[in-house]
UniProtKB/TrEMBL annotation:
Keywords: Membrane, Transmembrane, Transmembrane helix
Sections of the chain in a coiled coil: none
Ranges that cross the membrane: 42-61, 67-86
Top-level taxon: Bacteria
Compositionally biased spans, kind Basic residues: 114-124
Annotated region (Disordered), positions in chain: 90-134
Name of the protein this chain belongs to: DUF3040 domain-containing protein
Length: 147
């Protein structure tokens, strides 16, 4: 259930009072940001990927294919974690609360589908079909002197 305007106003006043009274405690409450946590996960996933390569190569050199499979699984899991962490780091993927955060560093988290932006709508460049647009691009590339 979302907070009412009065409750939001009171909460913001309490946050400002906390920051004014004890800024060190307020900065401790803020903790690490989502971006820092995502960066940390990506770095750890990169290290895990390197370990997976080492395990895979160790399995290949020793002749134990089971160790090689374990190394590959480690690499796969690490790559998945790294990609999900990096996807969360993109500027377009930041939540709406980061845009409307309070100067004190505290922000209001807006929930629901209303705050999500649609990335699937792209204006059409022409009235032609897909194949006509592809052929037009190909023609422009050839006339431009190569790829």
């Amino acid at each position: 259930m979302p907070l009412s305007e009065e409750e939001l106003r009171l909460l913001e006043q309490m946050e400002r009072a906390l920051v004014a009274e004890d800024p060190k405690f307020a900065s401790t409450l803020r903790g690490t940001t989502m971006r820092q946590a995502a960066r940390r996960r990506a770095i750890l996933a990169g290290l895990g990927f390197a370990i997976g390569i080492a395990v895979l190569m160790g399995g290949a050199i020793s002749g134990w294919w089971q160790i090689g499979i374990v190394g590959f699984v480690i690499m796969l899991v690490s790559a998945t974690v790294a990609l999900s962490a990096l996807r969360g780091q993109r500027p377009g993927a930041q939540p709406a609360a980061a845009e409307s955060s309070h100067p004190s560093g505290f922000g209001v988290i807006q929930g629901g589908k209303a705050s999500r932006r649609s990335h699937h709508h792209r204006p059409s460049r022409g009235s032609g079909s897909f194949m006509q647009r592809v052929e037009e691009r190909w023609r422009r590339r050839r006339e431009g002197g190569g790829f």
